[in-house]
Amino acid sequence: MKKTELGGSNKALSSSVRKVNRNLIFRHLYHHPGLSKQELSEALNLSLPTLTQNLSELLERGLICNDETKKQSTGGRKARTLNVRGDAGFAVGLDVTAHHLSGAVINLLGEIVSSSRVRIPFAAEEAYFRFMARFIEQMLDAANVNRSRVLGVGLAVPAIVSRDGQQLTYASILNFTHGRLSDFAQHIPYPCRFVNDADAGGFAEYWNNGSLHESGRDRGILYLMVSNSVGGAFFLDGESYPGQNRRANEFGHITLHPEGRRCYCGQPGCADAYLNTKLLSDPYDGNLQLFFDALDAGDAQAAALWEVYERDLALLINSLRMAYDCDIVLGGYLGNFMGEERLRALRALLAERNHFDSSGDYLIACAYKREAAAVGAGLSYINDLLLSV
Ligand SMILES: [Zn+2]
After folding, report:
1. 2, pLDDT greater than 50
2. Does any domain span residue 101?
3. CA of 328 relative to ligand 1 center, distance in Å
């Protein structure tokens, strides 16, 4: 009996070593496409037989492919290079907001293969959830996705999500506090999960920024989402920090002006009451683009609005820099309009306020525009696959 037990545990050990190696190989290839078998073996310090065995398994599962390319190092001779297959898996991300539904389908490489956006007010009703399911199928059709390859649907919501991910514990923007995942997912034939919208947007930027290293260790990134509401997320070592009550990084409710304007949360002076982008867009037909067009054209009303807004924004960003001491990505609707010149002006205000930093270069413009939250919600499924192969 003893021998059998020992045999069993050895078997378990070797199977777990094999899994670790396989995952190491897959993730290395994911981040370094186009390596030859030899290069991969050297980079990971794995013997060729071990590597060959794992590669066969990954090839068999359709997760990687063996491409024939001309490499300069071989003097124009054809060489075999290994790559992760983008079409091995797909994820859908939806960004559910009070007035719009946006979505993206991304492939295993994190590339957007189809996206869509419609103006539709959120309503916690059967008809809305049915529409959502159709919206997903239309995007999958547009990209001609084999449905058996759909890993899941991430639903980015402007809400606080319960620890088990099954319920919205605070969702005043959607007016659906206590809304359940089963309501949203009732017509969707794929695995679904909620992701807080700022967490999702932040994750997309974090992924894109390359901060998510293979080893899982990095410098951290803070994502400040400035849209019709203000929120954010903080990522370090591959994970977002959720806080004890899943309410970390609610930057919109940091007090900016005590005794100030009333926030939708009921408290006076919250950052959200001074920085939500409706303050800029409302006088311009609710269109943020029109506000920035007016600002660029020298419109006095727009300039006066922006001057106050920009100072308040600098106040909040400087406080976040003091608290986190890491790079800050400015995203959300506002991020779309932060061109080089505007960013430079904001960085100068930040440098003025900060005793430690001589420049505001730690502030970075977001890479994704409108689709960040949808992409990030989808990426959560891609990331799961990456970690579990
Ligand atoms: Zn508030």
Report:
1. no
2. yes
3. 21
- 231 CA to centre of ligand 1 in angstroms: 10
Query: Largest Cα–Cα distance in the chain?
Result: 86
As given in the structure block, the two tokens for residue 64 are 């990687």
Q: How far is CA 238 from CA 35, 80, 203, 242, 385, in A?
A: 24, 32, 9, 13, 14
Shared domain check, 288 and 177: no
Ligand 1 centre to CA of 80 (Å) is: 57
pLDDT, one tens digit per residue, over 97-106 is 999 999 999 9
Last residue of a domain, one of 142, 171, 204: 204
Ligand 1 centroid from CA 79, angstroms: 59
Instruction: Give the Cα separation of 147 and 268 in Å (integer).
Output: 49
Do 232 and 328 reside in the same domain of the chain?
Answer: yes
How far is it, in rounded angstroms, from Cα 19 to Cα 90? 22
- pLDDT recorded at residue 210: 63
Q: Could you tell me how far CA 63 lies from the centroid of its own chain?
A: 23
For the whole model, what pTM was predicted? 0.84
Confidence of residue 367 (pLDDT cuts 50, 70, 90): confident
How far away, in angstroms, is 267 Cα from ligand 1 center?
5
* Residue percentage of the chain with pLDDT more than 90: 74
At 4 the pLDDT is: 42
Strands, DSSP E only, in 71-181?
A: 78-84, 90-96, 100-107, 112-119, 150-157, 160-161, 168-170
Q: Tally the domains of the chain.
A: 3
User: 265 alpha carbon to ligand 1 midpoint, in Å?
Assistant: 4
Domain that holds residue 127: 88-204
254 CA → ligand 1 middle, Å: 7
Centroid of ligand 1 to alpha carbon of 351 (angstroms)? 27
Q: What is the CA radius of gyration of the chain?
A: 24
Q: Six-digit token pair at 158?
A: 């402007």
Asked if 146 and 55 sit in the same domain, the reply is no
Q: What are phi and psi of 20, to 5 degrees?
A: -60, -45
How many angstroms separate the alpha carbon of residue 284 from the centre of ligand 1? 24
